[in-house]
Amino acid sequence: MSSMGAISGLLVNNDYIDIISNNIANASTIGYKSSKPIFFDMFSHSFYSNTTNGYGVGISNIIQNFNNGMLVETGRDLDLGIVKDGFFRVLDAQGHIHYTRDGQFLLDKNQNIINMQGMYLTGQNKIYSKNFFNSPSSLEPINLKHAHILKEKSTSEIKLKAILNRNANVMTQIDSSDNQFSNTEEYMTHISIYNKDGEKEQINIAFNKKDKNKWQVHVTSNESENEKGINDSFDLIFNSDGELISNKSLNIQSKDPKKYENITLDLTDTMEQSDTNNSLEEHSQNGYPQGVLQSFNIFPNGEIVGTYSNEQKQKIGQILLSKFVNPEKLQPESGNLWSATLESGEEKIGIAGDQGFGILSEKTLEASNVDLNKELINMIIAQRNYQSNAQSFKTEDKIINTLINLR
């Protein structure tokens, strides 16, 4: 029976060399995870005594090392690395789901994000609440075709911060060329907005002092003279500290609802002060014309944000990650892929950086986690073990031949 121990040693160390060779061969494979065997000793039992004899060695399991590999910068927009836990989830042409740490993606002719094998990266093409990311059925191939054109948006809100001079005379005007208040009869500024057709237009906002701590704001469009467009006015009341206490948010009604939205004018930060120059500090509005997608970026949480020709940025998709309770039990497949098994546990889907998921690193790739120095040392050990078992087997063979030749 002792020769069986040597034979098992030969077989096991041959398998060990194969595992090491595979690790070394994949030292440059993106997202590759090294493997190692778990050895166990074997014993035989005698029917004639209570003793057990060593029977050799076996491999009980081959485990994968899911420690992170180094992140290597590539400068390419669709190269993605995962920092810490998680897998990209990809869908093949037959509808089968696979998992990978290889973040080399590209766009196909239909604007799907695919890996190098043509499998679809899954996620969501719209931005929902986090509670929606709880089921594989909610995921779909990420496609950017829907985001090529950003539809125009008419202005529905204007935010304006003005500093009004408490000592100003009644009926003075804003200097529209530099947004500074002058000592004329009316303070006025001009702000560009967008109508429902995405066309840029100008509205006029004038401030008139009516009384102590009391002003009137008058909002008009260029069409208001023809009894169309926008023509609305409101009173503003300030307290003794110069804080606006009435009509902080004004609802400006349009006389042409087919062309204009009703606009909310937010004056919350407007103040009345003494001993200061009148000035328009800042203003903004939320309308914009139609835009064409120029580029996109992928953020650490997996959000895909597009930049458009109209200088707008818009969330256009969401990459979601998968993870498992026991990733070591995932089944390795060709092409830097894994598939789920019963032993790997139930798939959990989530947002990068949330609930234990790793974050994404744009323009980087995760290198193989193979340590070549360790693997070469292991190769030497496995070769010596193989040679030792071969020598043991040869010795056993000589003993058997000697016994056979006894006369």
From TrEMBL:
Where the record annotates domain Flagellar basal body rod protein N-terminal, the positions are: 17-33
Cite the entry's keywords alphabetically. Answer: Bacterial flagellum, Cell projection, Cilium, Flagellum
Q: What is the lineage of its organism?
A: Bacteria, Pseudomonadati, Pseudomonadota, Gammaproteobacteria, Enterobacterales
What InterPro entries does the record point to? Falgellar_hook_FlgE_sf, Flag_bb_rod_N, Flagellar_basal_body_rod_CS, Flagellar_FlgE/F/G, Flg_bb/hook_C_dom, FlgE/F/G-like, FlgE_D2, LlgE_F_G-like_D1
> Chief subcellular site?
other
Name of the protein in its database record:
Flagellar hook protein FlgE
Flagellar basal-body/hook protein C-terminal domain location is 364-406
What biological processes does GO assign it?
bacterial-type flagellum-dependent swarming motility
Q: What does this protein do?
A: A flexible structure which links the flagellar filament to the drive apparatus in the basal body.
Where is this protein found?
Bacterial flagellum basal body
